[in-house]
Amino acid sequence: MEETRNKQIIFKDFISGIPKETDMELKEGKIKLEVPRGSGAILVKNLFLSCDPYMRGRMREYYESYIPPFVPGSAIEGFGVSKVVASDNPNFEVGDLISGITGWEEYSLIQRTQQLRKIQQVDMPLSYHVGLLGMPGFTAYAGFYEVCSPKKGEYVFVSAASGAVGQLVGQLAKLYGCYVVGSAGTKQKVDLLKNKLGFDEAFNYKEESNLDAALKRYFPQGIDIYFDNVGGPMLDAALLNMRIHGRIAICGMISQQSLSEPEGIHNLYMLITKRITMKGLLQSDYLHLFPNFLELVISYYKQGKIVYIEDMNEGLESAPAALVGLFSGKNVGKGVIRVANE
Question: What range(s) does the Enoyl reductase (ER) domain occupy (predicted)?
Fold first, then answer.
């Protein structure tokens, strides 16, 4: 059977602190373009790979999380869009386009096929299936509608608002009839939020010496919904500015993920005085809603009611820098790596 080259991004060893490009290395091996008979597996050619903040958690030796750590010496894993090139599974045929967990490599043999999803929406950009139509987009949908329980006219704050999840949360909130403010870390991202994504207001948190004062400036009447992607001091400031019966969706803690000693939250007493609901969010708890999500978001996109911004990186070689860049805010929009064209 024919062998072909297979470049891979290898995870070297468990880390502490902020990820570095040197924590990963590019290696080139060979792979047979066949699937072992009776394995139920599929072999795929990877087209797009997703860079996501949760991947930092998989770089530490911690086995109590909802997803296990990466295996040192093996290819990194993440969400991707792939094309089936060989199959021993009746549910997948050669030529099928799929989305789901795959390896950071040119070709992957996938044994666990239960959570792979066939891509039916071929009239949408393929890369959107790791972003707008994938895990980040669905996280935004489930988090906003199910966790935040919005009402028309409410005041919504979104942190890391130009990122993969935040940009869609803000647009869904606007379409629902809410007043929306986002925070981001550069002037370019703030301009994007206000001028392209339709947020009512946005601010650069790095230019604010007092986050509590900043939120009071943008929400003099208080915040009904805080969609939290960062944790840390921003969450602490938001707690002080929530309205009675406010809701906080805890989606990410990117400010804390690389700290060996995570910062504490000092204003939790506000949960009592203001009867705030604060809830953690994993999109996998809401998968029964995925068809509804696709229908709504594709409809909004085709009508021009929402836009989606990608940060496209070309070639598997760019993957380590793209992943590391998430943690210093280098990406503008959803971080994606283009491994190959179809």
Answer: 42-337
Residues 207 and 221 in one domain: yes
Three-state secondary structure of 47-60 = EEEECCHHHHHHHC
Q: Which tokens hold the place of 31?
A: 């792979």
Per-residue pLDDT tens over the stretch 190-240: 999 999 999 999 999 999 999 999 999 999 999 999 999 999 999 999 999
CB 262: neighbour CB atoms within 10 A? 13
**Residues 66 and 85 both lie in one domain:** yes
Single out the residue of 210, 263, 213, 274 nearest to residue 239, CA to CA: 274
DSSP-assigned beta bridge partners for residue 278? 248
Q: How confident is the model at residue 254 (pLDDT cuts 50, 70, 90)?
A: confident
For CA atoms 69, 75, 76, 80, the dihedral sign is: negative
What is the distance between the alpha carbons of residues 331 and 161, in angstroms, rounded to a whole number? 12
Cα distance between residue 63 and residue 44, in whole Å: 28
Same-domain check for residues 101 and 193: no
- The answer to pTM > 0.90 is yes
Supply the CATH number for residue 117's domain: 3.90.180.10
pLDDT at 261 over 90: no
115 and 142 fall within a common domain: no
Residue 333, CA distances (Å) to 234, 282, 312, 313, 336 in order: 20, 20, 9, 12, 9
- In the chain, the N- to C-terminal Cα span, in Å, equals 22
Return the structure tokens found at 89.
């599974």
Both 22 and 117 in one domain: the answer is yes
Distance (Å, whole) CA 157 – CA 223: 7
Domain limits for position 48 = 3-131+309-338
Runs of H (alpha helix) within the chain: 135-142, 166-176, 187-195, 211-218, 232-241, 270-273, 290-302, 319-325
